Every structure is written in structure tokens, then in C-alpha cells.
């Protein structure tokens, strides 16, 4: 329901103090309890514009990598009462349900009663909100790094000081092609111990700060199982997520009391091809930014997938573990590398399609400081992030260019021309060998043919449809599906997935859309003569299947009301050159609901 009509100007004038509530409309009202001049100023890293590196590249940098590890150890060790501590910054995202930097909740939603964090999901601001959030983390990390660099003795000191100036948070590219011998989860985050050199020159093997975060302490009155969605279904429990939030020692991944990294790596390997295809689709197809950036019902609905939908499965694969409920996700150090990668995807998109950006949409899903229905736009404050002590806000408009926050990404560092960047994106995420050429060969098509049809499964899923907001995955298969859900992700028939992150107490009817691309599988089957181009629709209708699961445990379809999968197709104008993207043209054709 749209209940708000508010201009950016009236919104801006309402900031920083309580404004009278308009009789006819609710609007985004931000109350702050800080006195002016004492806000926490988020500047991002300082000292110039430097690229955030892929974690496996940062690892090769010697001094900078050592400094990063020492800075993470120091940052994580900060007293949890400090507003700039790792604990409090991670706590902005979800639990504890307390204000940060004096930014109070909205009029009708109280962070404690309603148990909402500041993070916007299924909401216009999903993409841009995480930008100042990461910049805040990066700025604090650099502060710790600078202090540590100053402790080294000459001549190492100047090398470390120079490294601190250039240090930016790493990103983890979970969609890039990797030989099967290499883990998708970087070993730097899965080793329990890691080598560092202290400023006094002593080398040691220490607890790896990228492996987990150790609460010191976990206050159960602040963070506890009540902040995690109940995951039991009518047919019995799926697992123990509330126990994860109650884990008072450390963050875990893919496990309750300890991380299961080998198991997680297998899952990430299994979803890598579809994640890669999903990333390529959102980076190569023009959509209105509001349709591209989030899975809320904003923008005209592009249909090529969304940044948020592509990011979701990385969270849900770590279930049960801190990364899967949004209420505690940011405590896991891998959260920051994952979201830096999501921010990078957004930055790449912004350079390829610079003319489209955040416009306007009522909030589909509330946060601690945003009511459902509040009208959001590019000037909406990205609460609780202040630009300066005076209290000016970070907004989507003023965070549009990453360089203003002191960072860029490797692909963008040298201001590439559009065709250079397109080529690079195609190399990173595009079909392995010239798709057009391969398609033509396989289909014995004349080389001048530039049209083909692309098939996708469109998944419409109620985001908070399972047990008051528990996460779930919708897996697509082409072929027969075993009754043993433990084998699904690794099976030959598995194509890809759509994931709902859910969220505790969201109470929203919100239905999101994600697409699973079927073409790689179809091509293989055409290649092996199992399928002909003409018989594709008929084959898909007979063999496309979907199942629901979480943590490899089946969730009966009837547990989520309103979930729907539809087979769709679009025409593709195949690019003849490697610095141009294939274009999906002419909209989508529906071929009926998939209900097996
Ligand atoms: C060097 O610093 C580390 C970390 O502070 C400390 O544990 C170690 O004892 C120091 N070594 C020497 C030789 O002082
Ligand atoms: C759990 O935390 C919430 C606040 O985040 C608090 O209201 C509630 O009382 C806590 N529960 C327990 C059992 O401490
Ligand atoms: C986790 O640890 C708690 C406390 O030791 C124990 O009660 C629980 O059974 C463990 N859960 C699992 C899944 O191992
Ligand atoms: C699925 O199983 C049926 C019955 O066992 C079989 O006839 C059919 O060929 C299988 N389909 C595929 C795509 O493997
Ligand atoms: C960059 O190239 C892509 C693919 O050909 C095109 O769709 C896009 O509009 C171009 N962007 C700019 C800024 O020229």
C-alpha cells in the first residue's frame, strides 16, 4: 500500500529534529538524540583513491596483507562499548536492537519491540545503503592499520606507513571462474591460524581474524536466539538457527557450534556456475537502476535479475551460521568481503550504464528507521550514517561515486573506456568461449544469424513467507530429482537457485522475483543431441522441476504460500564483437507455470 507522498525537499527539512507529523501521510522521520557537532563522521578511507583488491590478490601483497591482518585483529579487539568498535559497527546491520550514533527509530517501528536493524532489504536502498556502511568499516580498519604501521621500526616503518595509506578492504569474488583444484572459499578465511609479523619483527602463527569474530563478551540481553527466525516448519524443525544467535563464543559458517568449511566450499562450488551466469546477466543487461539494485518492487521491473537476488544465495549457503540471518550476518568477517563484492558489482554497473540511478519508491520492507510505505529517493538519508560531525547524511545521491569515498575497484582503477570494461566483464563472467560462435556451431546455423532464444525460470517468492521470516532456497532442476535432499546441489540436474534471506519479524507480504537462467544446461543438452532447438519448450515443460530447501533439508512446498515458478523466454540479439554485450530484446514470453 502506498501511503506516503513526500518531496525530497520536505524530507530534508525534517531531518535532524522531530517534525510535526503530517495529518495525511506517514513519512520518513529521523529523530536524532546527539547534539549537533558530535556525530560520528564517516569519511571513508583517506589518503587518496586506491582499489579494493580481491582477497586472493591482497594476500600476495606482503606488507599490506600483514598490515590488514594485524589491523583486523586490533579492530576486532576494540572494547565493545566503543561506538567505533567492530562489535558496534557490525551491530548496525541487525542485533543488538539499539540505536547507533544517536539515530533513533522511526515513529511506528521501535528497534527493540519490532526487532529490526538499519539494513534495508527488499527495499530501494539495498544497494546504496551498504556503500557508506562499508566505507565506515574501511575507515576504521585504516585507523587501526595506521597506528600499527607507526609501531614498526625504520626502515620497515615507511613501507608500512605507505601500505596503510593504500589499504582498502578486500572483496571476495564468489562468481569468478576457478579451476576445480582451487577452493571457492579463500583459504585465508578458512584457516584457523594465520602467519603475521608483529611491529617488533617477531613472526607468529595467530588466531585468524578472518576465520571468525570472537564476542568479548556476548551479552544475551542484547543478542540472543529471539532475534533469529524460527526455522521449524509444520513438518518438523529444519535446524537450529536460534542456537547460532545464542552462540556466545564466536561466529560460525555452515554449522551451529563450529564452522564446516569443506561442506560450505562444496555448496559454493555447486552454485558457482549459476552465480556467475546471474552476475553476468545483471551486469550486461540494461535495467532501470531501481530494478537492478534490489528485489523490492521498485522500478519498471527489468527481468534480468537483481543485485540483491544474486547476493542472497551466498548468505543462505552459510546456514546455519551467522551469515544467514540478517540480524547477525555482519559479525562474520566474511560479510565485509561479500558485500564489498556486491558493491563492486554495483560500481561496474554504474560505469556501464551511467545514466540510470536511484529514483523513487515507497519502502516495501521497513527497517529500524524506515517505515513500510515511506517514500524513498536518492536524497533519503542512509541512516544512521553521517558524513560529518555536523550531522549531514550520507545519501544515495552523495555516495554515487566511490572515488568520493577514497576507493575504486581493480577493473575501474584506470578509468577504462566502455569497450575495455565490457570486454573485461565478458572475460570474467561471460560464457567461457564465444557464446554466439558456439551456439551457431552446435545448431548448424549460418554464421550471420544473430538471434537466439534464452530461457529462464522466473521465481516469485514471498520474502517473509516461511515461518515469520526464516530463509529458504528454491532450487531449479532440469531432469529427475532424487528424494534425498542432501544430493540436490551436487546433482547433474541442478541448474541454479533463488534464495530468500527472510528476516525476523518483517511482517511483510512482499513478493520478490528472481530469475534462474537455463541456457547453459540447454546448450549442453543440445550439444549432446538430447534436445533440439525446436523441441526446447516442450522439453522444458516436461523436465523442469523445483524444490525448496534450507541447509540441504527439504522444505515442503506448501510451507510457503504464494510461491510460483514460471518458464519464460526472451529473444537475444547476439553480439558479434567481444566489446559489446548480447542484448535481451522484446520483453519476455511466458510458457506457463512450472509445478512439478
Ligand atoms: C613482539 O610483539 C608480540 C605482539 O605484541 C609479542 O607477543 C612478542 O612477545 C614480542 N616479541 C618480542 C621479542 O618482544
Ligand atoms: C534478547 O534480546 C532482546 C533485545 O535485543 C531483549 O529484548 C530480550 O529480553 C532478550 N532475551 C533474553 C532471554 O535475554
Ligand atoms: C551446540 O552446543 C550446545 C551447547 O554445548 C549443545 O547443547 C548443542 O547440542 C550443540 N548443537 C549441535 C548441533 O551440535
Ligand atoms: C526421469 O525418470 C524417468 C523414469 O525413471 C525416465 O523415464 C526419464 O528418462 C528420466 N528423465 C531424465 C531427464 O533423466
Ligand atoms: C557500454 O557498452 C554496453 C554494451 O555494448 C552498452 O550497452 C552500454 O550502453 C555502453 N555504455 C556506455 C556508457 O557507453
TrEMBL record:
Matching Pfam families: Tyrosinase, Tyrosinase_C
Catalytic activity: 2 L-dopa + O2 = 2 L-dopaquinone + 2 H2O; L-tyrosine + O2 = L-dopaquinone + H2O
Keyword Oxidoreductase attributed: yes
SUPFAM superfamilies: Di-copper centre-containing domain
Keyword annotations: Copper, Melanin biosynthesis, Metal-binding, Monooxygenase, Oxidoreductase, Signal
Domain of life: Eukaryota
Residue ranges constituting the Tyrosinase copper-binding domain according to the UniProt record: 332-343
Enzyme Commission number: 1.14.18.1
The UniProt record lists the keyword Oxidoreductase: yes
Gene Ontology molecular function: metal ion binding; tyrosinase activity
Enzyme class: oxidoreductase
Signal peptide start-end: 1-18
GO BP term, pick one: melanin biosynthetic process
Cofactor: Cu(2+)
UniProt family annotation: Belongs to the tyrosinase family.
Protein name from the UniProt record: tyrosinase
Protein source organism: Clohesyomyces aquaticus
